[in-house]
Amino acid sequence: MKDQSRGRVTKDGIRIYEAADFAGMHKAGRLAAEILDAMIAHVVPGVTTAALDRIITDMVEAAGAKSATIGYKGYRHASCISVNHVVCHGIPGDKTLKDGDILNIDVTVIVDGWFGDTSRMYVAGRPNRRAERLMQVTHDALMLGIEAVKPGNTFGDIGAAIQRYVESQRMSVVRDFCGHGLGQVFHAPPNVLHYGRPGTGAALEEGMFFTIEPMVNLGKPQTKVLADDWTAVTRDKSLSAQYEHSIGVTADGAEIFTLSPAGKFHPTWG
Ligand code: MF3
Ligand code: CO
Ligand code: CO
Question: What pTM value is reported for the model?
């Protein structure tokens, strides 16, 4: 039987994990981040997104871990790969990347029962200036959101920090998808919104584990899901970017479980 006696759950249904649990999340998050590091070399013009997903599947297996997405609600791949105007949940397939395409690769692994969920942006060849700026703003928005994480602040403070920055750059925050609690499960309360008002929402407490994963569009925020029931695209066909970290709330801030071991968690590494 699963041990449900440890830890506690807040009135908002958010599980509070124990100090020892950070190590499990760190290990899972590190593997997911290492996989994303290794993918940098593979994202080149001419490769298909299915080929990229195959490499990820093999790396998860080689590490003795499990993919959280294979079999999740009928999903069949180890990653989501979202190219250009695809906002999230792009399904790997026979689409060939061409020079200047930007894409998000999102990987979730399970290591010893702990979930590590992270995504970042890649470029096939060279991005144009607008794409480059979009990725930079999205990355910085995620990090500003993480900077708002500490006990006593609220989830609304995270969303407000992200929204305020993104809109100051004349870009828009997607409302239709959000971050989520995780830990020994993939998706748990709360919904982590990437917009909102300071001081609203549940209070942050030490021991909460969740993702922050803002999606930012160059155009309007509206999305639609294609007939495959997964692929979300911008309604106005504008470019979209996303970055995601899994984090834990510490006594005075946040521990980022999915930091790039190679220090490559940045759109302008090349
Ligand atoms: N990794 C995604 C997230 O950030 C979820 C992907 S679910 C899938 O929550 F089934 F589409 F893979
Ligand atoms: Co996530
Ligand atoms: Co993810």
Answer: 0.97
What CA–CA distance (Å, rounded) separates 248 from 207? 6
Which neighbouring-strand residues pair with 254?
249
Please, how many CA atoms are within 13 Å of residue 256, restricted to the half-sphere of its CB?
20
Confidence at residue 1, expressed as pLDDT on a 0 to 100 scale = 44
Average pLDDT of the chain is: 96
Residue 109 token pair: 């692994």
> Mind listing the pLDDT tens digit for each residue in 120-162?
999 999 999 999 999 999 999 999 999 999 999 999 999 999 9
Residue 234: its H or E element? strand 232-234
Ligand 1: residue whose CA is nearest its atom 2: 106
The residues with which 216 forms a beta bridge, in sequence order, are 173, 241
The protein residue whose alpha carbon is closest to atom 8 in ligand 1 is: 69
More confident residue, 267 or 68: 68
DSSP states along 184-225? SSSSEEEEE-SS--TT-SPBP-TT-EEEE--EEESS-S-EEE
**CA 130 to CA 127: how far, in whole Å?**
8
Question: Hey, what are 187's tokens?
Answer: 């998706």
The CA distance from 235 to 225, in Å, is 9
User: Which of the listed residues 70, 106, 180 should we mutate to test ligand 1's pocket, taking the one with most ligand atoms within 8 A of CB?
Assistant: 106
Q: At what angle are helices 155-168 and 129-147 packed, to 10 degrees?
A: 150
Q: Indicate the burial class of 147 (C-beta count within 10 angstroms; 0-12, 13-18, 19 or more).
A: middle
d(CA 141, CA 159): 10
Residue 132, both tokens: 């480059």
CA–centroid distance, 215 to ligand 3, in Å, is 11
